[in-house]
Amino acid sequence: MSDVTALPVANRLPIVAGDSSPAAARQEPRAASRMTTQSASPIKTASGQLVDRFGRVHRSLRVSVIDACNIRCQYCMPAVGVQFLPREHLLSFDHIERFVRTAVALGISKVRLTGGEPLLRPELHSLVARLRAIDGLQQLALTTNGMLLDNQIDSLVSAGLQRINISLDTLSEPTFRQLTRREGLDRVLAGIEATRRFPQLELRLNSLVLRDVNLDDIYDLVDFAQQRQCTLRFIEFMPLDSDRQWSQARMVRGDELRGLLAERFGPLLRCADADPSQPSSDYQFASGGGRVGFIDSVSQPFCAGCDRLRLTADGKLRNCLFGRDEWDVGEVLRKEPFDSRALQALLCAGTLAKHAAHGIDAPDFRPPERAMYQIGG
Ligand code: SAM
Ligand code: SF4
To answer: For the chain, which ranges sit under pLDDT 70?
Structure first.
């Protein structure tokens, strides 16, 4: 990681000028940088890109289009009493397009739509078409629980969607019900099959394992993915659930999963990293078959290569899943006439305030106030 003093001066000016102290390396609340529109200073970094104090160039953006969901995964949402944002608090498609255009002009080249459950947002395909028309946007992806996918996949693909991640944690309906507090595994499976009709669409399956719920399902999930020749990725349970039920004991580390899979299927060979900014470490079974990826965000944080920013459904810019800082870009997006320089300034400020690492292994770590469904995973 580069020393902050080696960065161009313009990269060091606003908000947290040159603070490379150990405290800054952890995610802590920073009243000074919170929800601010200040920054008369540079609108762009010297390179014209979103570069943080540690030299990380930001190219990826997660856009949450809604916080609501049609299931209630234990690791994300509360069982009851969840309050979703009123419709009028969600950014409109015009606002999202404005934001993405501005971010792309600053070097963002990959966008992933997420939520909540993004397919609950009416006419999502029209947003896909609008974003795909942006010059410089190279990759447009979607993360979904798949429940509504079989009805929407045709329009999403026609609109230009390029990649899709579908969450699949089990192949057993009782376990699905236990994990999501809803019925509907058949809907998810129908969504996966509908998606497979489009070989041009890059499909990945994401699984999250809770030791006390679906650890036994990992073998069936690997078989399922291999039979369909698609990549399966196991994501470690992170302390981002609204019930605050996360614990080391419930989380299953990636290295434990690799050990269990190797016992059943034979040795796993590490694949070369195609893209160091990707959070997943990919493996292949020595016996052949498809790839299995591991996103070990807790046990092996990949902060050093993180190139992500996030836009929440209510218009807040975040620079880290685990951070507590937000920048109110919604205010700028909703104001007429649109001031693109003010938005650029917020994007630069949010990027510059990014810490070196998420700090969840620190004894004084406090999870963010928002749960995963309110941030956009
Ligand atoms: N509803 C969609 C879905 O589930 O795919 C998109 C939003 S969801 C928040 C995105 C991803 O976040 C899912 O793959 C889900 O497994 C993951 N996720 C949710 N809560 C998590 C947690 N506490 N730790 C790690 N991943 C989590
Ligand atoms: Fe909904 Fe996705 Fe959260 Fe599950 S992980 S509750 S599907 S937003």
So the answer is: 1-46, 274
